[in-house]
Amino acid sequence: MVHLCDGNYNFTQRELQILLLLSQGMTNKDIANQLKIKIGTVRNHLKTIYKKLDIDNRNMLIKWTCDHQNWILAMLEKRK
């Protein structure tokens, strides 16, 4: 079940960055290169994100990130 965007996900800064890049169509490798982290680290963050959103596949996650891109951007801006 995909939860509505109410802001209670407790995403870390890095998770928000990954969500934003995912919404822009980046692969795990692209995200790792952009953030200068290992691809395994990206995978670990994605596993945590899947659990927080109760999502079990990448297509659903990509749809969620596209639907909530403005919220993701606002959360990243808020944390600056």
Task: Write a brief structural summary.
The protein has 80 residues and is mostly helical. It contains 5 helices and no strands.
Task: Give the helix/strand layout.
Layout: H1 13-23, H2 28-35, H3 39-53, H4 58-67, H5 69-78
Helix pairs in contact: 1-4, 1-5, 2-3
Account of the 3D structure:
The chain is mostly helical and 80 residues long. The chain has a single domain (13-78), classed as Arc Repressor Mutant, subunit A, CATH 1.10.10.10. The protein is built from five helices and no strands. The protein has helices at residues 13-23, 28-35, 39-53, 58-67, 69-78. The chain is globular and about 25 Å long.
Keywords:
Arc Repressor Mutant, subunit A, 5 helices, mainly alpha, 80 residues
**For this structure, what is the CATH class?**
Mainly Alpha
Q: Secondary-structure element sequence?
A: HHHHH
CATH topology: Arc Repressor Mutant, subunit A
Shape: globular
CATH architecture verdict: Orthogonal Bundle
Q: Helix segment count?
A: 5
Number of distinct beta strands:
0
Kindly estimate the percentage of residues that lie in beta strands according to DSSP: under 5%
Sheet/helix structural class: mainly alpha
Largest sheet: none
Number of domains: 1
Distance between the termini: 31 Å
What proportion of the residues is helical, as a percent range?
55-70%
Mean pLDDT: 91
CATH superfamily: Winged helix-like DNA-binding domain superfamily/Winged helix DNA-binding domain
Rg from C-alpha positions?
Answer: 12 Å
Which residue ranges are poorly predicted, with pLDDT under 50 across at least 5 consecutive positions?
A: none
Organism: Caldicellulosiruptor diazotrophicus
Keywords: DNA-binding, Transcription, Transcription regulation
Protein name: HTH luxR-type domain-containing protein
Domain HTH luxR-type: 4-69
